[in-house]
Amino acid sequence: MVNDRRALAAVVLLLSRLFWRLWAAPDAVVRTNLERLRLVRRLLVLWDIDYTLVNAGGVGSELYTRVFTSRYGRPLPQPGSMAGRTDRAIAREVLALAGLDGQDGLDEELQLFQAALVDTAPAFAARAREVVTALPGAGAALAGLAALAPGQG
């Protein structure tokens, strides 16, 4: 598992450096790099969007609070930073902090908790439209990636 994390970290670092060079470079260099990238048939880019592309304004924390409170009838334990972590890792930490990790059915409870998050999330759509904002450069980054799609540019 450690090797998987190291490999993933290396790929993320490589992609970050590549895209930083694309947007920080002079126009001629950007055009050359974009031309090279167009030779790639498929490119998968994974981003943790909160504080990378958008500021979610705490909507995720509000969602977790509502689901936890409604399921367990007590306040949500405060996990460490949510930044850069998967929802599964955050949910597992929340359940552990609540003392629910000693149960035989933690994996089942984790699935139920995550299902409740998914079911409840649409109720936060209006709130998200109010508070979520794009970060500077997000639009340009997405436009640059869209330009790499087959048949574009």
Structure description:
This protein has 153 residues and is mainly alpha-helical. It has seven helices and two strands, in the order H-H-E-H-H-H-H-E-H. Strands 1-2 form a two-stranded antiparallel ribbon. The chain starts with a helix and ends in a 7-residue tail after the last helix.
Short key terms for the protein model shown above:
153 residues; mainly alpha; two-stranded antiparallel ribbon; 7 helices
Write a concise synopsis of the structure shown.
The chain is an all-alpha fold and 153 residues long. It is 59% helix and 3% strand. The longest helix is centred in the N-terminal third of the chain and has 23 residues, at 2-24.
Using the CA coordinates, give the radius of gyration.
Answer: 20 Å
Spatial shape: elongated
Q: Can you write the helix and strand succession as a string?
A: HHEHHHHEH
Figure out the total of helices. Answer: 7
Give a short account of the largest sheet: 2 strands, antiparallel
Helical fraction equals 55-70%
Give the structural class.
Answer: mainly alpha
pLDDT < 50 stretches? 22-26
List how many beta strands DSSP finds. 2
Mean pLDDT comes to 75
Distance between the termini: 40 Å
The main sheet orders its strands as 1-2
Beta-strand percentage? under 5%
Layout of SSEs?
Elements: H1 2-24, H2 27-37, E1 54-55, H3 59-72, H4 87-97, H5 106-120, H6 125-131, E2 133-134, H7 138-146
Antiparallel strand pairs: 1-2
Helix pairs in contact: 1-2, 3-5, 4-5
